[in-house]
Amino acid sequence: RLKTLNIGLSLLICLPPKFGLGDAIEYSIAIKSLIKSKRFKKIGIAFCSNQSHIFRNLFSFSEVFPTLISEEQIKSFDTIFHVTLEIEALKFQKYLRSNIAEEICKYFNVKLMNIKLKNKETKQKYDNIISIFPVSTSVTRSLPGKVLNLLIEKLKHEYKINIILDESFFSKSLENYISESIKNNNCKVIKPKDIKELIREVSEIYYGVFVDSGPLHLAKLYDKHGVLVETSVPEEILLYNTNKIYPLKNKYISKYCYGPCGLVDIFSFDKRVGCYETNKISFNEIHNLENLKKLNRFNKIENNAHFHINPVGCIKKIDVNNLFELIKGKLKEK
């Protein structure tokens, strides 16, 4: 891959492999902003196979190439733009998260739009129900069973609760952990079978409790109310485009991190696996590495299981009492 020397009028944006739902939404917001700027005659999106529904159906982009693109199609664009090659900050998203939409708009010098969606076909069917979305794609951004269990125990006597899970390891582990707590008429587990059902579920909630995950980004699109449990990624990055979701701040401090460190997932370094604190290094050491791929060479199933039961420092220190009081207080203001 070669860097782009000149930006033309027709732009093919090539995305990195295997990004999540939240990233897909942030990329889409940036691309909508580029289109709105009228700087380009045509914008295409390539290699978004795992999230093509978001680009095609939720944001209605017409030039979408999920896995394959022909030579003829490539020639219809005068600029091929690989985001993680061209934009320095996006090279290190796994280790120092930045605002994807903002970084792209800054690169092209266009105004970042604040996009909100309205789905006329859905209604808010969960009046006065708190919907908890405890699962992210990483162990550093998911709620551990103990925290979720304590939160359910506090909420279920005053509120009805929906707990939204999926088929991931984290969800199965959580469901086993909270099995006794949800034996209550006020508690219900919901498992959307696909992305369409998840979108509909989020668009219909009354109030949400979120971690840094795809459902949080969907909730912002649909202008929903709720709270964010801030873990490793700063709320300033996650909540830049909403004033209806409030953060429970991560105030954890160690020798190697101060509050949200920006890390997206655990990694391997010098035969240890974990976060900056458990690996006893800072981002600067990661930044200076020539080969980032070796940071992902570890047994993910085994280590995810370990850190889900034995959370990293900032996850372990989540204050459930403060979270409960924040939810109660903000619900009264709603």
Explain the overall architecture.
There is one protein chain. This protein is 36% helix and 14% strand. The radius of gyration is 20 Å and the shape is globular. Helix 1 (21-36) runs parallel beside helix 5. The strands form three sheets. The chain has a six-stranded parallel beta sheet, with helices on both faces. It has a four-stranded parallel beta sheet with strand order 3-2-1-4. The model has no long low-confidence stretch (mean pLDDT 91). Strand 5 (129-133), helix 6 (145-155) and strand 6 form a beta-alpha-beta unit. With 334 residues, it is an alpha/beta fold.
| First-last Cα distance | 50 Å
Strand order of the largest sheet: 7-6-5-8-9-10
Q: Cα-atom Rg, whole angstroms? A: 20 Å
Report helical residue fraction. Answer: 25-40%
Q: Mean of the pLDDT scores?
A: 91
Q: Provide the structure class.
A: alpha/beta
> How many E-type strands?
12
List low-confidence stretches: none
Largest sheet: 6 strands, parallel
Q: Give the helix tally.
A: 15
> What fraction strand?
5-15%
SSE topology string: EHEHEHEHHEHEHEHEHEHEEEHHHHH
Shape designation? globular
Q: Characteristics of this structure?
A:
single chain; 334 residues; alpha/beta; six-stranded parallel β-sheet; four-stranded parallel β-sheet; 36% helix
How are the elements arranged and paired?
Blueprint: E1 10-14, H1 21-36, E2 42-46, H2 52-58, E3 64-65, H3 71-75, E4 79-82, H4 83-86, H5 100-108, E5 129-133, H6 145-155, E6 160-164, H7 169-177, E7 187-190, H8 195-203, E8 207-210, H9 214-221, E9 226-229, H10 235-238, E10 245-248, E11 267-269, E12 272-274, H11 276-279, H12 283-287, H13 300-309, H14 313-316, H15 320-333
Parallel strand pairs: 1-2, 1-4, 2-3, 5-6, 5-8, 6-7, 8-9, 9-10
Antiparallel strand pairs: 11-12
